[in-house]
Q: What sequence folds into this?
């Protein structure tokens, strides 16, 4: 008798962690043998629970032999009751989001997995993206002099006179995010590669994550290496790397005839070759697709042999994301790699970038229902069509409340005379001061990866 339990599993020996999906360990399962088989040609596997009768088992008389046709019917009814009951028990307890935990593989195909929704053992859930900013004097989590910060985001060093933007902590409604613990994070990520893939906003987040962990590592036991479009911070004693891969479109941008820039909507391998073998991949791609024509990074789009001078940016974005999604589905193993897609970071660029200048406090709430970015709509549509369980981490609305968190004019040091005329400088309302808002994105990421 065979009962399929949906779970992805490679051929070979069954491990305890393979059954953590159901909140139990192997030695707690009744003594049925376990086998695995391919699931109709897809990359997923089904773990089968098979009742075996060993050929060498001696025959013994049982009352079942004397009960005629009634007993099989009774046995069938008992099994009909027992198996759903047992499966409902097995499915109940696991709330961890660890690299060895495969519960994330069992999700509904028609839903986007919102990674910021956390479930506890009682079955209640908490949306980590729904909450408010709380002033907390115990913040920031690291010193603004962190040596891994790039100059444009060191706002205090560049002369920003206020520092309250560093002291706001995100508090979800109904639960809390555990304060970032660098040693605990590194311990859980031991011998793992974490790679953040995207644009300069993703570099913002990478610098934040590196600064969050680097303070607990002795000077001689950390280093940064470079390989093509990637850079990696190494915590040597933990054999952990936190890497950044520059790929703002995910797909390939190449030089063509007459030095024209061609964005290939169906090519990705030149970027994707750096993503292989990584344990945790965090993606972001949105801002560069919506640059105005004056600031666009391409001259032509290309798909197959067709070259286009112009294309609706969201149509192009959908095509590029679809190429990325196909690559993930075909090339990554969900047992080895976690994939998270971080939603678009909001910009406060109205009034020619001066919307964020001299802002000193977060918004408490939106005065009207916030607009859902078009990129988010396109992204959700692509994720819904994927076989690979990619999670969407929504940081958009929580960050939209933080117009005080941008560098504005403080992307470079200014002397006293220049400080008297700040509007002579460009105001950056896209990136984020550090310490600052991206630290909260990483606290959320840490809580979701290693919650205990």
A:
């Amino acid at each position: 008798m065979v009962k399929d339990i949906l779970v992805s599993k490679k051929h070979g020996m069954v491990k305890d962690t393979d059954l953590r999906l159901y909140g139990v360990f192997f030695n707690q399962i009744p003594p049925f043998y376990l086998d695995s088989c391919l699931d109709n040609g897809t990359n997923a596997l089904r773990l089968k629970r098979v009742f075996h009768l060993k050929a060498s088992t001696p025959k013994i008389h049982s009352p079942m032999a004397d009960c005629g046709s009634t007993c099989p019917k009774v046995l069938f009814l008992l099994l009909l009751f027992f198996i759903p009951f047992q499966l409902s028990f097995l499915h109940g307890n696991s709330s961890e989001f660890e690299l060895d935990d495969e519960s994330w593989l069992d999700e509904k195909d028609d839903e986007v997995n919102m990674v910021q929704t956390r479930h506890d053992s009682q079955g209640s859930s908490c949306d980590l993206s729904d909450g408010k900013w709380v002033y907390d004097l115990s913040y920031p989590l690291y010193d603004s002099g962190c040596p891994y910060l790039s100059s444009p985001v060191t706002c205090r060093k560049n002369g920003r006179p206020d520092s309250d933007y560093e002291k706001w902590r995100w508090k979800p409604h109904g639960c809390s995010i555990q304060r970032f613990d660098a040693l605990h994070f590194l311990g859980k990520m031991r011998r793992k590669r974490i790679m953040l893939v995207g644009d300069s906003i993703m570099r913002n987040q990478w610098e934040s994550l590196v600064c969050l962990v680097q303070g607990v590592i002795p000077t001689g036991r950390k280093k940064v290496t470079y390989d093509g479009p990637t850079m990696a911070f190494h915590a040597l004693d933990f054999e952990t790397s936190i890497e950044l891969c520059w790929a703002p479109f995910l797909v390939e941008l190449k030089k063509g005839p007459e030095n024209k820039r061609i964005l290939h909507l169906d090519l990705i391998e030149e970027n994707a070759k750096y993503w292989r073998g990584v344990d945790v991949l965090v993606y972001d791609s949105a801002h560069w697709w919506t640059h105005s024509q004056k600031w666009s990074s391409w001259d032509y789009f290309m798909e197959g042999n067709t070259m286009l001078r112009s294309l609706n940016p969201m149509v192009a974005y959908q095509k590029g994301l679809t190429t990325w999604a196909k690559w993930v589905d075909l090339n990554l193993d969900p047992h080895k790699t976690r994939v998270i897609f971080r939603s678009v970071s909001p910009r406060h660029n109205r009034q020619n970038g001066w919307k964020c200048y001299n802002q000193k406090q977060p918004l408490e709430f939106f005065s009207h229902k916030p607009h859902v970015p078009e990129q988010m709509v396109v992204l959700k549509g692509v994720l819904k069509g994927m076989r690979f369980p990619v999670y969407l981490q929504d940081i958009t609305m929580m960050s939209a409340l933080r117009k005080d968190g941008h560098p504005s004019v403080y992307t470079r040091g200014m002397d006293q005379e220049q400080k008297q005329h700040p509007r002579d400088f460009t105001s950056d309302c896209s990136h984020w001061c550090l310490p600052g808002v991206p630290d909260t994105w990483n606290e959320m990421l840490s809580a979701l990866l290693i919650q205990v």
The chain is about 20% helix and 20% strand.
